[in-house]
């Protein structure tokens, strides 16, 4: 992933936000909407695009656009920084290759401990019964 190229392909849009700000909310566009077209990106190669399509599928639209919004702050600039950080983090998490899990044996001590516990429980239950004469 070429971070600089990807960041130039991002489109920002400022819209009116709800929340803190009083009457100022009705006049100022402080909410920032980030949109990114995954398939037309030149900062990602084909393999990375396929991996992202699979990993962040729930965040993508049907046309493979990633849309993020931020209206946490009253400042448009801070919201833009927050949403950009969030965008980069999503891409990095989506491109991370997980190591395959190695199957391991159950340790011998754990098996023995389980069998001892079973025998103890069986003995306790056996002692509850009436004695045979």
Automatic annotation (TrEMBL):
Membrane-spanning parts: none
Enzyme class: hydrolase
Upper taxonomic lineage: Bacteria, Pseudomonadati, Bacteroidota, Flavobacteriia, Flavobacteriales
PANTHER family in alphabetical order: PEPTIDYL-TRNA HYDROLASE ARFB
EC number(s) from the headed UniProt entry: 3.1.1.29
GO molecular function: peptidyl-tRNA hydrolase activity; ribosome binding; translation release factor activity
Name of the protein this chain belongs to: Aminoacyl-tRNA hydrolase
One BP term from GO: rescue of stalled ribosome
Organism of this sequence: Flavobacterium profundi
Similarity remark: Belongs to the prokaryotic/mitochondrial release factor family.
